[in-house]
């Protein structure tokens, strides 16, 4: 019995894969414990996601990497006010 083969039209096209060990060239990226994680196009969205992550897991070190200035900004956990 012959095995079916995929024609050129049916083969998957390569996707644009973001490597976690290379800094992005544009936008903002959330850095968790020194590793690039989620990429954002706006700084406010990255800050909101980082703040939410720190609220759930306060032991993490979370930073926002700005590709334009090539700088990192540490995100601090918000203190609870009684």
How would you explain this protein's 3D organization?
With 82 residues, this protein is α+β, with helices and mostly antiparallel strands. It contains one helix and four strands, in the order ββαββ. The radius of gyration is 19 Å and the shape is elongated. The N and C termini lie far apart (73 Å).
What is the secondary structure topology, with strand pairs?
Elements: E1 28-32, E2 35-40, H1 43-56, E3 62-66, E4 71-74
Antiparallel strand pairs: 1-2, 1-3, 3-4
Overview in brief:
The protein is α+β, with helices and mostly antiparallel strands and 82 residues long. 17% of the residues lie in helices and 24% in strands. The chain has a four-stranded antiparallel β-sheet, covered by helices on one side.
Class from secondary-structure proportions: alpha+beta
Low-confidence parts lasting 5 or more residues at pLDDT below 50?
none
The separation of the N and C termini measures: 73 Å
> Strand arrangement, largest sheet?
2-1-3-4
| Tally of individual helices | 1
Kindly report the average pLDDT value: 82
Attribute tags:
alpha+beta, single chain, 24% strand, 82 residues, 4-stranded antiparallel sheet
